[in-house]
């Protein structure tokens, strides 16, 4: 029997519940800092109310597109909480798209996967060059799903994906079936099979999986198992980082995480 709190985070991180407000405040400050002409906000990629993305542009012609997918166990949050994570990529000359997507329980995970593929295709149509994809937690799951062969992406978009960086990803959804949150997620055995990246062949693009050493053990285990399944993937265990601060290096253009990420598009 799985511990019902095994995947919980805020109660197990010092001052954990404050991060949500801190992220939203940092995101708003970033949007206020960015020149209006370098932001394209609330760009529709579908008919749904949450099918929108924000696009942040660098000075000059973008080197490519960095596509970031937020977490929240497919149930909470949206693009406006994560704008600040575009800072590092924009400073390196890349355009950054951050989508919202339909949330559970209104949407199943398979529907969310399709929605993110729509968002990626729409963002790619606005920015030329290589594509790098990253996401955190549930967003890490969706990051890996974008390079699975069953996802409906145009060949021209798929060919542009130079690499992915899933951070603290959920690779195998089977354990979540037994958790209280599945009352919202409604994962069954069939969806756990089709929506778990760990059951798909590894992609041709570069893959780096990152997880914090101070995360809940199940997240470390998921990252290790995913790296074992996709044998060419690099696994980085960030010393001392927990589930909420492991994404901080995305804000710093010179962080080792960002240097490794953008090396994927150069190699």
UniProtKB/TrEMBL annotation:
Residue ranges of every copy of the Alpha/beta hydrolase fold-3 domain listed in the record: 67-173
GO molecular-function term, one example from the UniProt record: hydrolase activity
InterPro entries, alphabetized: AB_hydrolase_3, AB_hydrolase_fold, GDXG_lipolytic_enzyme
Coiled coil: none
Domain of life: Bacteria
Pfam families recorded: Abhydrolase_3 (PF07859)
Keywords from the UniProt entry: Hydrolase
UniProt name for this protein: Acetyl esterase/lipase
Source species of the chain: Aliiruegeria lutimaris
């Amino acid at each position: 029997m799985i511990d019902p709190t095994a995947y919980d985070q805020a109660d197990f991180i010092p001052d954990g519940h404050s991060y949500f407000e801190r992220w939203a405040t940092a995101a708003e400050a970033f949007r206020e800092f960015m020149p209006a002409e370098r932001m394209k906000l609330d760009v529709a990629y579908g008919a749904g109310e949450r099918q929108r993305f924000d696009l942040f542009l660098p000075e000059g012609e973008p080197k490519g597109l960095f596509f970031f997918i937020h977490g929240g166990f497919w149930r909470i949050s949206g693009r406006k909480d994560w704008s600040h994570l575009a800072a590092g990529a924009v400073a390196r000359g890349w355009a950054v798209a951050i989508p919202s997507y339909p949330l559970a329980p209104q949407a199943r995970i398979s529907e969310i996967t399709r929605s993110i593929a729509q968002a990626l295709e729409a963002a790619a149509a606005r920015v030329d060059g290589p594509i790098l994809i990253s996401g955190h937690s549930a967003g890490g799951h969706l990051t890996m799903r974008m390079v699975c062969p069953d996802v409906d992406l145009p060949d021209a978009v798929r060919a542009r994906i130079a690499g992915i960086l899933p951070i603290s990803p959920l690779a195998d959804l089977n354990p979540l079936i037994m958790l209280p949150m599945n009352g919202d997620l409604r994962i069954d055995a069939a969806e756990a099979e089709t929506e778990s990246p760990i059951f798909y062949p590894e992609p041709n693009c570069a893959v780096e999986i990152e997880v914090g050493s101070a995360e809940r053990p199940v997240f470390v285990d998921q990252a290790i198992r995913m790296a074992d399944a996709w044998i060419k993937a690099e696994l980085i265990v960030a010393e001392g980082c927990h589930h909420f601060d492991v994404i901080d290096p995305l804000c710093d253009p010179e962080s080792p995480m960002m240097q490794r990420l953008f090396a994927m598009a150069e190699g």
